[in-house]
Design brief:
With 66 residues, this protein is an all-alpha fold. The protein is 82% helix and 0% strand. The protein has three helices and no strands. The chain starts with a helix and ends with a helix.
């Protein structure tokens, strides 16, 4: 599953405008982190954990913004 699809699920229930803004910000952050992880040769497990943490943080933001 893609990060974008996972973000849609994490932010489910948010107002459309808010969801778009939050998703855009988290996607930009995820891309930047993925680039850095690649540069520093992070392990696949570390990359997976980073994405999972971003999704959890997005869920928390979504709950607070409802």
């Amino acid at each position: 599953m893609s990060f974008s699809t996972d973000m849609d699920r994490a932010l489910n229930g948010m107002a459309t405008g808010q969801k778009a803004a939050v998703k855009s910000a988290f996607t930009t952050l995820e891309t930047a982190l993925a680039d850095e992880q690649q540069d520093y040769e992070s392990s696949p497990q570390e990359r997976i954990a980073t994405k999972a943490r971003l999704l959890e943080l997005a869920r928390e933001v979504g709950v607070r913004m409802k």
